[in-house]
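Researcher: I'm preparing a figure for a lab meeting and need a structural model of a single chain. I don't have an experimental structure, so a prediction will have to do for now. The sequence is pasted below. Please return the structure as tokens so I can convert it later.
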Amino acid sequence: MDKQYGQIPLPPDYNENALYLLVQSPRVLYVYWELSPGLRNLFSEKKGVQIRLNLQGRGPYYTTDLDLSKKSHYFSEVVPGQSYNCEIGIINWGDEFYPLLRSNSVVAPDEHPAEKCGPEEYPEPGTPLTFSSSSWSSGDKE
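Model: Understood. Here is the structure written out token by token.
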């Protein structure tokens, strides 16, 4: 809070085009966006506007119509361990998709924990740990 001017409110939008993809869980991805007034007007004039979840390097995984009144969407039933990105685009009269915004890429994590380490891989309790440029090690001197 600024003492001189009081509370400064955040704007509801920044009038920029942005598309961000986040991992919610191993099988759910969350995407949120902001559309500038110009892009929103372009979309409102088009036959179809879609949002697409792509498997990185393999193409569309899931496609749905974009509701311009919303600002986010959840993609469920994604495959853990795969890399994804998202696009928002228009459908032309030939039913071809033209992407206008692309998100960052994310990797859905695996559903199972990493394999357990054996007891020989852990230092004795109470042993200080040190860090070298190559790895963590116990503080024991050899």
